[in-house]
Amino acid sequence: MVTEENSHHKQAFGSMLHSDPNEDEYTFRISNTSEPSHTNYDRPPPRLSSDYSPPLATSPPWDPSSSPYLDPSWDQSHQTSPLSRSPWTSHVENNTNYSYTGLMGSLVREEGHIYSLAASGDLLYTGSDSKNIRVWKNHKEFSGFKSNSGLIKAIIIAGERIFTGHQDGKIRVWKVSGKDPSVYKRIGTLPTLTACIKSSLKPSNYIETRRNRNAVWIKHFDAISCLTMCEDQKLLYSASWDKTIKVWRASDSKCLESIQAHDDAVNSIVVGFNGQLFSGSADGTVKIWRKESQGKGTKHFFSQTLLKQECAVTALAVDPSSSFLYCGSSDGLVNFWQHDKLLSHGGVLRGHKLATLCLAAAGNLIFSGSADNNICVWKRDGGEHICLSVLSGHSGPVKCLAVEEEHDPIGGDKQFIVYSGSLDKSVKIWRVSSELIPNQAEVGTSPPQNFPSACSFATQGSCRVGQRRK
């Protein structure tokens, strides 16, 4: 257990078109952000922020001074491969002429915990509590880029751009060089410096944050927990522990809207079902927001509360066919709803002993990662769900998942490559076949009953867990 302390972080902003590498010099104010202390494990806090993992028995304490990437004098601009001194090691089976479900290999690091993953084709992006985003190609280290803030909690890929969400409340935007695919450049930070200056001139643009502090409404003043985009990639959504969701226009990086979404930290957001926005929070609710056109812009309105429970909502996912919504909670359950049945509750998947920390969907498979160190693979057949397999291999909580379908599967069966990031400081690579014989019979299709009033969330993820306010 960890006692949270408030630490001060500078709020810095760079122009979207002309980003300054020394962006943190642009400081408008100092605000409090929630960041856990690495001490006092035995005293339970009033609210558990799960960014920190107590050292595993098999892992030596991490020494920040041992990482060459935390040295401010280290300059990556002159190197073709800025991560040539990476402490990562790859353990991947070279023989790929097989068809099975199981572990293919591991990418192991010594810098810290893995908080975010994004896969696109043969590229894998990994984010952690260091300042680096790593890029892997065909399971080997390919490139990387360095931000001004660590704790990279979210990575999404939108065409040629990569968006990363950080503990300091900022979104950073990156683009690969047209001349060298191994070189990435930061092309902006959201909100932009220009937008912050313009907003700061109007007193009506200020909102009260906490402890009688004020900030312009276009800025997140706490950690960004997740990012997502609408189907046409015209809008970017960011959710934060500051209880808000912000809506950004992707074409010019303008913040269009700030939604006061929940009574506690927003842990997950996802878009599906013809543009509806779903949000899950530490206040135990899942809410639906509908998008409506207003003149040349759009506005989001509260539609309904889909779930209300005592335990924190930690993860959301919509399957590729946009027929099912899945919700993971800190009690280990995964609830689901069916779109074609007017979002009626379809049941509960019961496969984990501890909190469900992440979800991913691909084809007719659903993957749930948990604080119990395991990944459950679920197969959907109509409205029924079968547990195909439990992927075991991590020695710490599974924090994030990314899934890619294999282009040329062996044997003709549909197969997927699954990447799992964990607080054991590793990324594991799994091959999963959708034609497995189930491990167990039909699992958990009854509605949830008797949710506990206190969540058994004994391990860590990048989710905020708090008691639902009455």
UniProtKB/TrEMBL annotation:
Region (Disordered) location: 1-91
PROSITE patterns to which the protein is assigned, alphabetical: WD_REPEATS_2 (PS50082), WD_REPEATS_REGION (PS50294)
Any Pfam family: WD40
Feature: compositional bias, Polar residues: 29-39, 64-91
SMART domains: WD40 (SM00320)
Alphabetically ordered keywords of this record: Repeat, WD repeat
Superkingdom of this protein's organism: Eukaryota
WD repeats: 217-258, 259-289, 306-338, 391-434
PANTHER family (UniProt xref): F-BOX AND WD40 DOMAIN PROTEIN, MYOSIN HEAVY CHAIN KINASE B-LIKE
Protein name per its UniProtKB record: Uncharacterized protein
Species of the source: Anisodus tanguticus
